[in-house]
């Protein structure tokens, strides 16, 4: 979450074991998605049977049955037309880029503590130091060092940071894809805490002097899962307009969320968030099928905002002295577990192999319908995905997710190394994860990648991608390329 990042330093409770209890309504929702086009699957064998019968007839028989043959042909054409017109357009991820700040913005933990010494009282400073040194972040993360004092956290300095990371990410993407930005029909920018007027998406239009027909969207206040919400929005827009490109930019302006008070529940994000941004280019053009890296398979969005506890577990408020900050409730971890449980229970029927679905469904029926006291079957999501891109919000929550999903250190490596090298870059972190796997040469044609993000409100969103080609790291240039041989590293405890 851009607001709290689910950093896991809230130590009041651990993430619940969400795989041990599921609600049947979320399973039903997943199966609804699965069979929504099942009518077409049922029609195919019927048409095949009719065709097989016609193939046994002689010419004389065909003449007798000419009217029936015309009707059959008309039916085939009609059904084929309906099928292809109602089928959703394929959406391809042409390429993406993750912004890597200049070395002058790099800061060590020791230097950061020095800059905070004159801002906080001793108790608050010691609390932040404890969080920082257990965060899993390295001494090579980035903040706007030259501006990192509260007196410089002005609107103009935040706008400068926003332009630096957003335009930097877009320029890197355009250089990789060689797509002219004027060809892009939709531009979506998401930043949770910093939303100036004119908007950040308008800033992009102004910087590149785009035409009057470009359609822009600006998403704010939606937390670290907003990048995946942007993917869903782009997918919906591309379904309605053929031969189009959509550009997604995800970021957070760290100084805009910096808290200078002494409420410990609001101090954690100060130590976790870092500079970063991603730019993603999606297309529904058939011609992009062969040049793109991935195809979008599923986006599942789960929103628990109707629950007051979930709604208020990450909440921005203002203190009596005017200082704004993001409060983290003691219920945060439990709420996150519930949201993730609902999300993966809906996703399961869409991605798990049939063997896993049958075992899981049989266990569910036995427990919920026949009230049998048996151990629930925990689906193995490693059979559905080769790559896991979990939002690098914090060390503790990554530990809990690894335990609950039964993931190996190798599968957790992209998330842990992203947190270590770049810190919590909010909604862009899932793209730094995927870039890590590309730089390591691990993306093979046909591989499936699962991106998971959390957001205030409270939301859990996930996206599933299928690799359309093997990514050759020797031909790649991304935020990891120059130093990928140095990873993975052992993160100090």
Automatic annotation (TrEMBL):
SUPFAM superfamilies: Thiolase-like. The chain crosses the membrane at residues 33-56, 62-84. It is an enzyme of class 2 (transferase). GO terms for biological process: fatty acid biosynthetic process. This is 3-ketoacyl-CoA synthase. Pfam families: ACP_syn_III_C (PF08541), FAE1_CUT1_RppA (PF08392). The keyword Transmembrane helix applies. Pathway: Lipid metabolism; fatty acid biosynthesis. Belongs to the thiolase-like superfamily. Chalcone/stilbene synthases family. One of its GO terms (molecular function) is fatty acid elongase activity. Residues 386-466 form the Beta-ketoacyl-[acyl-carrier-protein] synthase III C-terminal domain. Residues 83-368 form the FAE domain. Keywords: Acyltransferase, Membrane, Transferase, Transmembrane, Transmembrane helix. The keyword Transmembrane applies. Its EC number is 2.3.1.-. It catalyses: a very-long-chain acyl-CoA + malonyl-CoA + H(+) = a very-long-chain 3-oxoacyl-CoA + CO2 + CoA. GO terms for cellular component: membrane.
């Amino acid at each position: 979450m851009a607001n709290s990042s689910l950093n896991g330093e809230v130590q009041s409770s651990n993430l619940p074991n969400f795989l041990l209890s599921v609600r049947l309504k979320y399973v039903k929702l997943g199966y609804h998605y699965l069979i929504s086009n099942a009518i077409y699957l049922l029609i195919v064998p019927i048409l095949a049977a009719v065709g097989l019968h016609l193939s046994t007839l002689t010419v004389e028989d065909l003449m007798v049955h000419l009217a029936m043959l015309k009707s059959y042909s008309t039916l085939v054409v009609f059904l084929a037309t309906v099928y292809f017109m109602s089928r959703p357009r394929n959406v391809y991820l042409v390429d993406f880029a993750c912004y890597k700040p200049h070395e002058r913005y790099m800061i060590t933990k020791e230097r950061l503590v020095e800059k905070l010494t004159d801002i906080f009282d001793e108790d608050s400073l010691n609390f932040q130091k404890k969080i920082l040194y257990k965060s899993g972040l390295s001494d090579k993360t980035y903040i706007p060092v030259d501006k990192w004092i509260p007196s410089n956290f002005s609107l103009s300095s935040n706008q400068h940071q926003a332009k630096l990371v957003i335009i930097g990410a877009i320029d890197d993407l355009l250089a990789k894809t060689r797509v002219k930005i004027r060809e892009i029909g939709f531009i979506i920018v998401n930043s949770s805490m910093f939303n100036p007027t004119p908007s950040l998406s308008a800033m992009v239009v102004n910087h590149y002097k785009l035409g009057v027909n470009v359609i822009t969207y600006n998403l704010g206040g939606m937390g670290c899962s907003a990048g995946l919400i942007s993917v869903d929005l782009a997918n919906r827009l591309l379904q309605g307009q053929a031969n189009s490109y959509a550009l997604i930019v995800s970021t957070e302006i760290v100084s805009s969320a910096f808290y200078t008070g002494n409420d410990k529940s609001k101090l954690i994000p100060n130590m976790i968030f870092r500079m970063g941004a991603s730019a993603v280019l999606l297309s529904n053009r058939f011609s992009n099928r062969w040049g793109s890296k991935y195809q979008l398979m599923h986006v599942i969005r789960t929103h628990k905002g109707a629950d007051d506890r979930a709604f208020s577990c990450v909440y921005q408020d203002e203190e009596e002295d005017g200082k704004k900050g993001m409060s983290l409730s003691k219920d945060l971890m439990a709420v996150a577990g519930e949201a993730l449980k609902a999300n993966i229970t809906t996703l399961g029927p869409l991605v798990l192999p049939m063997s896993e679905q049958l075992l899981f469904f049989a266990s569910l029926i036995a427990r919920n319908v026949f009230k049998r006291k048996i151990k629930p079957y925990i689906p193995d999501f490693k059979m559905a995905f080769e790559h896991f891109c979990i939002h690098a919000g914090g060390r503790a929550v990554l530990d809990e997710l690894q335990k609950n999903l039964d993931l190996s250190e190798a599968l957790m490596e992209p998330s842990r190394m992203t947190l270590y090298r770049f810190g919590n870059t909010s909604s862009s972190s899932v793209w730094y994860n995927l870039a890590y796997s590309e730089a390591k040469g691990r993306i093979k044609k046909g591989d499936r990648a699962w991106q998971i993000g959390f957001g205030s409100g409270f939301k859990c969103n996930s996206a599933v991608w299928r690799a359309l080609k093997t990514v050759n790291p020797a031909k790649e240039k991304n935020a990891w390329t120059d130093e990928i041989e140095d990873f993975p590293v052992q993160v100090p405890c």
